[in-house]
Write a structure and sequence with these properties.
With 308 residues, the protein is α/β, with parallel strands linked by helices. Helix content is 33%, strand content 28%. It has a six-stranded mixed β-sheet with strand order 6-7-8-3-9-10, with helices on both faces. A four-stranded antiparallel β-sheet has the order 2-1-4-5. Strands 12-13-11-14 form a four-stranded antiparallel β-sheet. The protein starts with a strand and ends with a helix.
């Protein structure tokens, strides 16, 4: 796939000496959904701010759709839409005027039909003539999304887009994200709701203390670092696990009616299948098999926790 965003050896040290980014390298393909995960203060917002032209890098290079953000600033910025964490809007503007202004700011010709589609998708059409200051927090968040999409960007940054919003908006937003991806828009999101990243993202990046720890395709990451915990309910009591199953590291419950084991890495399914086959061969009957797999949140907590 074509690379639409390339970040090379990116560093940022603030005037107070705080090192926010340390040699970050990242390449993002056109049309993918990329989730950047990290604890508070990890460098996520600084990274987004640099790409979007809001923060000046200390060193390094960022190229957006072939345009260097330091040299070809206007072309690079026209490619990007940003939904920031903060609800920063002109409280006295109407909703429609806010979108018109954002579109004109990037030199785009008026397109009332495009703006109407955005507002309808965000359930804001009936609010188009209301002042932003009169809207609820969730509605203001919708306006920010509309402003970010007004100039038809090819890359959309969503920085904690669902923080503090209602379930309905979260659902509407992710439906819109899927439609945008179908249209070829690249989505880069940060979120504290890691289940959203697990559901939506094609690839995952984990950043901590300014360093990009890993970047990997989501399914491959969960296979490699995840684990499965299996519980097998038996029909008859065992006094001890069979000797030829000792290599499986089985645990037997105190009542002798339940076997359990935990398998890490990519061979979870193969290990479970081999175990069940051996139980059948040994004549050990079981009535239930329950498995619980690691979530992306489990993996994230484990990765970041190792550095603490």
């Amino acid at each position: 796939m074509t690379t639409i965003l390339a970040i090379e050896r990116l560093n940022k040290t603030y005037d107070n000496g705080f090192v926010a980014l340390k040699g970050v390298d990242l390449s993002i393909s056109s049309g993918e959904i990329f989730a950047l995960l990290g604890p508070n203060g990890a460098g996520k917002t600084t990274l987004i701010g640099i790409v979007c032209g809001l923060v000046r890098a200390s060193s390094g290079k960022v190229t957006v759709d072939g345009n260097d953000i330091a040299i070809d600033y206007r072309k690079a910025r026209q490619t990007i839409g940003l939904v920031p964490q903060e609800l920063s809007t002109n409280q006295f503007e109407t909703v429609m005027d806010a979108l018109r202004f954002s579109r004109g700011l990037f030199g785009k010709a008026p397109d009332p039909g495009h703006l109407e589609r955005i507002l309808r998708d965000l359930s804001l059409w009936d609010k188009k003539d209301e002042r932003i200051g009169a809207l609820s927090g969730g509605m203001k968040r919708r306006v920010l999304i509309g402003k970010a999409l007004a100039h038809e960007p090819r890359i959309l940054f969503l920085d904690e887009p669902t923080a503090g919003v209602d379930v309905e908006l979260r659902r509407d937003m992710w439906e819109m994200v899927r439609r945008l991806r179908e249209q070829g828009v690249t989505i880069i999101l940060t979120t504290h709701y890691i289940e959203e990243a697990e559901d939506m993202a094609d690839r995952i990046g984990v950043i901590d203390q300014g360093e990009l720890m890993l970047v990997e395709e989501k399914r491959a990451l969960m296979r490699r670092l995840g684990q499965v915990h299996v519980t097998i309910g038996l029909t008859q009591k065992l006094d001890a696990p069979p000797e030829n199953l000792s290599g499986a590291k089985l645990d037997l419950s105190p009542d002798g009616m339940t076997l359990s084991f935990t398998q890490k890495g990519q061979d979870c399914d193969a290990a479970l299948a081999a175990l069940l086959k051996t139980l059948v061969t040994e004549g050990i009957e079981f009535r239930s098999v329950n498995s619980e797999r690691s979530s992306l949140e489990d993996i994230f907590i484990d990765l970041v926790g190792r550095r603490r």
